[in-house]
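Quiz preparation item.
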């Protein structure tokens, strides 16, 4: 009998996650019945939403997450042995699934000239998030000024490059000087600043003297209020994430300057979104992003950690900002 390995939620998150929150365990895989498929993980994704959502699950639950897997045994002709798929199988080495319409399993038959790991990054959920979250909500126009936070991360670096394709001026904020350098030199951002060391307001006044038209907000909190305070009339804010408070006690959230009067006076639009809103148009985003990548209009990086046992470490380090581009674990 084949045994699998998985990480379970061993202790509730409190503040920054640490290794005690996770426990590695073995489990027996069921025999394959008709229609069933056995696959083995190749790449596992570590994402901020795991920190935000895992608290909703009971202790002992398998950690949630998406992975790329190879089919190693199959009783379903739709998924032949050796085919590569993307599925929400969580942090586990082997999975037996029966397609039931509820599980969202994507065969990666189109990934011939790009790495399979891209299905977890620029050609997966982060790509769809950047594409629709920015284009549909910010509706950028040529010549406008766009600001992005966590600009060197999985989603942020794509938003900035899409904004450049749309002929905008792009300003990114991120937490390390080497990330700033990558954004300007490789990704074509006009400016990138280290929010940990710069004066945000003064920096914005210098880099965007004519104000900001679009803000793609990945962090929330004080920096977002400061950025919104510099927005132009009819500015658009796409609220994608609030990572600055994911490790914060929900009953003791940090305070940020009130921006409501400014939003009223300047007719600013703020809109939050969950990327699943555009699931029905997913292929449109993937096709366009694939084209831009092949044309060299979008550059992408992945920070790849080796080894199944190191998934929790990769997750913890991503939350600390150690990743450039998408944080992924290669099994
Ligand atoms: N709405 C949706 O459907 C959706 C979908 C995907 C992602 N998201 C959200 O989008 C954001 C980015 O996700 P991602 O997958 O692209 O992750 P990511 O940016 O690749 O990685 C997380 C980054 O967050 C930054 N960070 C960590 N703690 C921070 C803090 N206290 N303040 C400011 N920045 C901090 C770090 O970069 P620095 O070095 O820049 O600090 C870290 O590298 C997250 O908020 C995530 O929850 C939302």
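Solution:
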């Amino acid at each position: 009998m084949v045994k699998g390995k998985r990480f379970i939620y061993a202790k509730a998150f409190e503040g920054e996650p640490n290794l005690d929150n996770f426990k590695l365990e073995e489990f027996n895989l069921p025999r394959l019945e008709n229609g069933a498929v056995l696959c083995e993980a190749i790449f596992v994704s570590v994402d901020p939403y795991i920190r935000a959502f895992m608290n909703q699950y009971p202790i002992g639950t398998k950690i949630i997450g998406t992975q790329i897997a190879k089919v190693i045994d199959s009783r379903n002709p739709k998924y032949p042995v050796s085919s590569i798929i993307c599925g929400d199988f969580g942090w586990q080495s082997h999975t037996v699934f029966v397609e039931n319409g509820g599980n969202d399993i994507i065969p990666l038959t189109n990934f011939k000239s790009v790495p399979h790991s891209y299905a977890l990054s620029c050609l997966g959920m982060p790509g769809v998030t950047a594409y629709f979250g920015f284009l549909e909500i910010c509706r950028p126009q040529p010549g406008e000024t766009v600001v992005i936070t966590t600009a060197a991360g999985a989603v942020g670096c794509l938003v900035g490059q899409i904004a450049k394709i749309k002929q905008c001026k792009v300003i990114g904020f991120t937490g390390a000087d080497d990330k700033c350098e990558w954004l300007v030199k490789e990704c074509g951002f006009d400016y990138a600043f280290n929010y940990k060391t710069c004066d945000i307001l003064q920096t914005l006044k210098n880099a965007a003297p004519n104000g900001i038209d679009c803000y793609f907000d990945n962090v929330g909190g004080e920096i977002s209020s400061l950025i919104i305070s510099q927005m132009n009339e009819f500015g658009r804010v796409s609220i994608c994430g609030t990572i600055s408070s994911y490790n914060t006690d929900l009953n003791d959230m940090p305070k940020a300057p009130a921006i409501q009067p400014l939003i009223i006076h300047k007719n600013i639009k703020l809109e939050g979104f969950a990327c699943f809103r555009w699931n029905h148009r997913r292929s449109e985003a993937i096709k366009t992003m694939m084209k831009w990548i092949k044309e060299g209009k979008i550059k992408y990086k992945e920070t790849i950690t080796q080894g199944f046992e190191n998934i929790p470490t990769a997750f913890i380090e991503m939350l600390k900002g150690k990743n450039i581009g998408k944080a992924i674990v290669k099994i």
